Batch of 2 targets.
Target 1
Amino acid sequence: MSDNDKQLYVVHAVDTEGPLYQSPKATALRLNELYDLGIDTSADYRALGRVIAAYARGQTPAGGREDEIAHFLSTTEFLSDKAAYAAAVQEATSQDFRHQHADPQGGPYRWSWFVLDNVGTLINPRRRLFGYGQVYVNLREAFTNRDSLELDGFYWHYHQIRKDDHPFIKETNFHACDEYNQILCRYIIEHRHFPAAYRAGYCLERWDANLWLENWLPFDFSNHAPSFDYDQDQRVRDEVDFWLRAPNDWSHYHPDGHDLERPGNLRRTMFRSLCYKTRLYTLTEEDVRQAFVRADSGRPTVLSAFSHDFRRLAPEAEGYHRLVKKVAAEFPGVRWQNATAVAAARAVLGRQPDGGLQLRLWYQDGQVKAESSRPVFGSEPFLALMTDDYRFFHQNFVRLGQTRWAYHLRHPGMIKFIGIGANDPAGFSDTALLVRDGQNFLPVTDTGYWAGSPE
């Protein structure tokens, strides 16, 4: 075995949710809930701010939990408006920052943005960017260097949504709402984008999401298997999906159709990704060492940590990079490099076909017809329709062959846009879009975001 076989790909994933506001009262209520501090939450926000600041500095006695509380508060230093958010993104994506945190080969620092749509709720006390595509557009417009966009990957993050529209209670049923279909329809038609990788909101993924995702996205970075024991009763009670039964040695695996946390016969590939900085669990030096040990044994390995974009990303990237470099010194034979989630997945799986994926879409004799240049991941491309009155629908094709599909369009006069999106098994993505012109549908050549928007 040569050193060329000892490969480690370092991924920095971002649960991309946009700016986030948390009032002093909400912070105090959370502290009382977690640590039973008895803070008087009826005080005005200035007084509460001073109390919280004292806890953040570790200056208020808390029964020996001062450092723990201060750490928790350090994870709630939120970017609460678009200007602060844009400044933080520009800091973390600047050419200087990327090259200061390059890998040993000089490869720049790369981000993997798993983007959330804040939808499906009637209340918004955290002042999130609300609406389909708002976080995605805001992120991309925050990049001042357009070339920098090509260095990163843009993927999908989804919080399962409750039927009662409550934004702060976890929903374990993936199909409680079909917002996932609405979101992907809009990605294809409005943004000419189709994601190749996924991260589950709250790392919460059960059998229903497992089977649905299997048809569309080849790579899943939701495995949050810890390196410590966690009481299973408490896990069930707290609805904390710590993936206790999943591989925690940085190995990737194909999940089982009935048991997501066990290797099985599905085609999607699961990757482990641990929080860089959180109250519940933080990536440790030993976690990083474990990834290097695996790579040093000749098994190409993905080391992935994730952050949230409502905090400044640069300090977390600096800490992550410093930790990787420190451990790397113990393993001179391991070649480590910065990579996006999909590039890392392709590399460890040996999936590097030439040319990428090309989709073709046309309308003929009342039928929507689609063709791909190679077999897609799953059964078919994702078919999205938009009506004249701006409603979105997902429909299924009839399969005509390995790379050909058709759909009978019953009411073409009601449809404004028809779009498809797909990945191939290597995570190469493509979309195709038609717009109605009289009695016919013509190709949309614009490939930028808002390609099929009414604006």
Target 2
Amino acid sequence: MYQRILVAIDGSETARRGLDEAIRLAQASSGRLLLAHVLEEPLPLAVNGDWTLPSLPLTAWREAGERLLEGALARCRQAGVAAEMRLIEAGGRRIGPLIAEAAVDWQADLIVVGTHGRRGLDRLLLGSVAEGIIRTTRTPVLLLPPA
């Protein structure tokens, strides 16, 4: 059974489903979780033809990521599952490989990630974190599709 489970957290419904499943797996095996959230630098936005950065400073994005992780950590504690959290700053790198690296660093034996089920242009433009993880890891990955 899996003892060290990394869970990718992004605030989405599919990530919540992934957390719920990881908690169930950890309860069944007396395992522990690493809750991982990747902080991406805010992308510039086009407003009236001009490019501008979002008004929130990076510290506000970091605090939001920490709150997201703390909420997930509270759910783990409530379920009686040992967990720790890690906020990973992307530094311009893609999320999938960063999650895969965190799994290796933490010696995870399973990665749990919710998928958003993007297709076509959305997938081309936004990419697929799940696909990026699968392509760059040797750790088993459990994917949870949208409900």
